[in-house]
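lol ok so funny story. i was supposed to be doing the assay writeup but got distracted and ended up predicting the structure for this chain instead. priorities right. anyway since i did it might as well share w the group, maybe its usefull for someone
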Amino acid sequence: MAATAMFVEVLVVGIGFLTGLGILAAAIAGPDNSRQLAPAAATPLAAGAALAFAYALGILIDRAADTILAPARRRLRTQSFPTSAAYAQARLKLADIPALAARADYARSRLRICRGWILNSILLTLATDLALWRYPVEHRTLLLATATVLGALAAVGFYFSWHAITATGYRKLAAQTMPAAALPVPSQPPASAPPTT
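and the output, tada:
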């Protein structure tokens, strides 16, 4: 089940990036060349190759996004775990609780899609802008502004979603696996002395 979910995540990310590359290639080729190449791209063989390439691209983009976001991820982790060893120990404890492990897997699935689509949003925005410059379209300025704003909003939205999922995941992992005595206790006001008689 987990392997199937990961395959789908990688494919979702890879298809998005491949779409961006396709738009970019069409923009570079221009309208006339794209029109001539379109029949070759519509064959079953091309579709199969595109699917395989999308999966491979998904792995590459997932690793690239993870590397780029690693400093931010480490900062978020240190807010819940003082050391890497404490985090590794918490992950091992979580694996012994199937219900919690399944929830954590679902959170990591959403996390991987969000981080991959940060890069996808950037590529799709740049490729769409270039295509709008190369192809004869009406209201080009309005379309360029709209595509750029929507692309930027998507990239920022995916980043903040990734950030929130990551931070929440670390907090929940700490709460679920650390002993109660090790959890921070909110400060309480000093108890008032009982009235004397």
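Helices lie at 2-41, 44-78, 84-95, 98-134, 140-177. Confidence is low (pLDDT under 50) at residues 180-187.
back to the writeup now i swear
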